[in-house]
Specification:
Layout (H helix, E strand, L loop, with lengths): L5 E8 L3 H12 L3 E6 L2 H6 L7 E3 L5 H7 L4 E6 L5 H13 L4 E5 L3 H9 L3 E3 L5 H11 L5 E5 L2 E7 L9 H4 L1 H5 L2 E7 L2 E3 L13 E6 L1 H12 L1
Length: 223
């Protein structure tokens, strides 16, 4: 049965610094981006850089449906200071059963509320929009740090298919052109990565390499 949601489409609600950087980076990556914003002047300033811009007076479920955001695989609520609008927009997106709803949190308590209703909470710095966009495109995980345009460090939790296999057997460096920086196990770091090291359930590999190499390894890990 075909899903009603487009995994390559992203809804951005709110166009502050965080939302703008996120929208621009996702657009650069070739993703479909729909932006909702109350302040029309913010939309006017980027109309030459972004398409699918919608001025709105509020974030209701009807607005999410009419704009197409309701069919996006991921929605990111980037509203900052207005906590009521932030939480209401998040709830409306969740009630439409959008697969992934990420919301900007302004405090730990705010984040706890967002997580309690079923969203992923993030606490962005000025540059976090760019980093989140790269993480969504390259690995689908938030544990991702872009060091430059095409080299990143990512945390990847190994799948069952990699459990009980040695580093030598997996041959990650040759097969995927990635370097294992450290293995995280039970909140401890193993930095002596020997060929004989056997991976265990829930081990996290901290790897460095190109975004394309990380994406390739992530796909292999899911098989």
């Amino acid at each position: 049965m075909k899903s009603d949601f487009d995994s390559d489409a992203y809804g951005i609600i709110g166009l502050g610094k965080f939302g703008l950087s996120l929208a621009l980076e996702l657009t650069k990556a070739g993703k479909d981006v729909i932006v909702l914003e109350i302040e029309e002047e913010k939309l006017d300033a980027v109309k030459d850089q972004l398409t699918n811009l919608y001025p709105v007076t509020g974030i209701t479920q009807d607005v999410l449906r009419e704009s197409g955001v309701a069919h996006c695989g991921t929605v990111i609520v980037c509203i900052g200071k207005d906590l009521e609008s932030n939480i209401l927009a998040t709830m409306n997106a969740l009630e439409l059963k959008i697969p992934r709803v990420i919301a900007k949190a302004s405090s730990v308590d705010h984040g706890r509320v967002l997580e309690k209703i079923g969203a992923e909470a993030i606490y962005p710095e000025v540059d976090m929009g760019v980093r989140l966009a790269h993480s969504l495109v390259a690995t689908g995980t938030l544990d991702f740090l872009a060091l430059c345009d095409d080299f990143s460090i990512a945390n990847i939790t190994i799948s069952e298919s990699f459990v009980d296999r040695t580093i030598e057997e997996l041959n990650i460096r040759k097969k995927y052109h990635l370097n294992i920086i450290v293995v995280l196990r039970n909140d401890k770091a193993i930095n002596e990565i020997t060929p004989e090291l056997v991976l265990q359930t829930e081990d996290i590999l901290v790897v460095g390499g190109t975004n394309e190499a990380i994406k390739k390894f992530e796909k292999a890990n899911l098989v």
